[in-house]
Amino acid sequence: MLRDVFILGGARTPFAAWKRGRTGFGARGGDYAARHPSELASAVCRAALERCGVRAADADRLIFGNMYPIGPHACYGGRYVSLRAGLPPEVPSLAMNMACGTGLAALIQSAREIACGDAELSLCVGADCPSLVDKEIFGPSFYDEECGSEIGATVEALAAERGIDAAAMDAWALESHLRAKRAKAVAREEIVAFGGLALDDSVLENPAAVSFANAKRLYGGGISGRNTHAIVDGAAALVLGAQRPDGALGRFVDGASVGVEPARMGLASVPAIRALLKKTGKTIADIDLFEINETFAAQVLMDIGELQIPPEKVNVNGGAIAFGHPFAATGGKLVLGLLLELRRRKLRTGIAAICVGGGIGVAVLVERL
């Protein structure tokens, strides 16, 4: 019989605009440009354990998610994170990669190990630092050879089919920044200060003063750099356990991953959420809040339309267009923020979902305790 899995808590770094980007104040980004993903990951693991009142010596698993392995020692990534977080040498670790879905995939893997009795207390952590990724690797990684185009172009085509225009994309992007700006105080519950930052620095200081409509359109339609996720460096960690201590944030209910044709990756969250609802016997109406990664505003709007989700339930504290998408760290951030917001609102259930380049959707259902 499978055991319940509890999410005891977590922590994340502030998300720092990458070195080739700009902060919400207009300054050049790059506060973490000299920080390796393993350094960020071990720091948030230590912070998450401390916040949960758990000793590092009590953890018996660690899963490290990382989309862009960096440097000659990247093959030791999970092991280095574990040791530098203070876990005993006998604790095994695993490094994994499902591109943008890595954080949620790591959570699902961690939860299943606990549910099966293979672990009692586990850390799942994701980190990426695109500031350190060579331009020759980073840029081309957004071109999907299977469909012969950039992933953004595939989303543009799907949005055009559904009549989602530039104005709708820009309106969602503006709202993402407005919500994130209003939520700066509550974001402090997720964040542990790191590298001189205390808050995400890509959120626009004055979103209403920015002209989203004048941004350069990237694929001949509505998608622009302003209504696409901010590129940031960061890390996020969650602590999972088989026991329910006082103060635990929530319960992991289930997760689902679904593949689609690569050219339809922008809609991949839709079948993943549907599969998750079918597995758990839930409906859209049963879900109180949704965190859907804002890879593109168009993609979130398509999810809302296809699934008939009330927009006011989606990304209530802003999304990756505002605070950024640090790839493998995003899943942990979405789940941590979701559970904290469910607690603040005294609501019960939430879904976090991400679409993944290459045509994969991954979704997780959690419940507040």
Description:
The model has no long low-confidence stretch (mean pLDDT 97). Helix 1 (37-52) crosses helix 2 and helix 3 (102-115) crosses helix 11 (330-345). Strands 1, 2, 3, 4, 5, 8, 9, 10, 11 and 12 form a 10-stranded mixed beta sheet that branches. The protein has 11 helices and 12 strands. It folds into 2 domains: 5-134 and 234-241, Thiolase/Chalcone synthase (Peroxisomal Thiolase, Chain A, domain 1, 3-Layer(aba) Sandwich); 135-188 and 251-364, Peroxisomal Thiolase, Chain A, domain 1. It is globular and about 55 Å long. It is α+β, with helices and mostly antiparallel strands. Helices cover 32% and strands 20% of the residues.
CATH architecture of the largest domain: 3-Layer(aba) Sandwich
Number of strands: 12
Strand composition percent:
15-25%
How many structural domains can be distinguished in the coordinates? 2
Q: What top-tier CATH class of the largest domain fits best? A: Alpha Beta
Large-scale geometry: globular
- Percent range for helical residues? 25-40%
Number of helices: 11
Mean pLDDT rating: 97
What is the CATH superfamily classification of the largest domain? Thiolase/Chalcone synthase
- Biggest sheet: strands, sense, closure? 10 strands, mixed
The CATH topology of the largest domain is Peroxisomal Thiolase, Chain A, domain 1
* Unreliable stretches covering 5 or more consecutive residues: none
Looking at the chains present, what oligomeric state does this protein adopt?
single chain
How much is the radius of gyration in Å? Answer: 19 Å
Along the chain, the helix and strand elements come as: EEHEHEHEHEEHHHEEHEHHHEE
- N- to C-terminal distance: 21 Å
- The secondary structure category is alpha+beta
